[in-house]
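Dear colleagues,

I hope this message finds you well. In preparation for our joint manuscript, I am sending the Heme-binding protein (Pseudomonas knackmussii) sequence together with its predicted structure, so that both groups work from identical material. I would be grateful if you could confirm receipt.
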Amino acid sequence: MSAYLRQQPQITLKLAMQALQAALEQAESRGLRISITVVDAGGQPIHSAHMDGAPAPCREIALNKARTAVAFNLPTGDWQARLERCSPAVRQGLPLQAGLPVGGGGEPLRLGDVCIGAIGVSGASEADDTLCAQAAAERVRQLLAG
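The corresponding structure tokens are as follows:
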């Protein structure tokens, strides 16, 4: 392998389907209607679902949450605490960036410390979106642990 290249593990469709199913099960158990998107390590969508009755704009919000989580290898719900340590200009400006949601519902999917993809959930409260996304991340951890 060249020193000028890096290898990046990627989530497979099979694993993305398992992650999405875990989020869907969590939503159904709570009576929620959400949109869910799973992206690979490059932020490209590989699997998604939009539950009956979920608000239409949630499709795009879920995708943006997933892309933000994978880009920073950080749950989107952690942004508030991170922003508190930043200058006023960053605290005010960063949340205004298009496609960069800073509320909960985006979770990186990891193999150890390596981000292999992410899931974004939108359509319920921030807390419920986060619980659904965390259920998916936990399912991925369990499946990769063998």
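For the figure legend, we might mention the following. The chain has one domain: 13-145. The mean pLDDT is 95.

With kind regards,
E.M.
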